[in-house]
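New here. Your pick:
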Amino acid sequence: MTILPYALAICLGAVTISMLFCLIRLIIGPSIVDRLLALDTLFLNATCLIVILEIYWASTAMFEGALLVAMLGFVSTAALARYFTTGHVID
């Protein structure tokens, strides 16, 4: 008997709860910086969720999707931070 499915179920629950907390912070964040950090953490949690589900389903079809979510999360966070600090994204 292996413990891997139980560990993955616990990880799945923890990441889901973390995503819920990030969504709440994204909605009610008192400042724009809090909302931006919550969005970045939400992208990171989505990437982790995809990887955990892929390990749980014993598949390799969604690793590219996880990589795309991570890259889009980084680029969008950098672009939004630049926009909120300077007022424009591209010089």
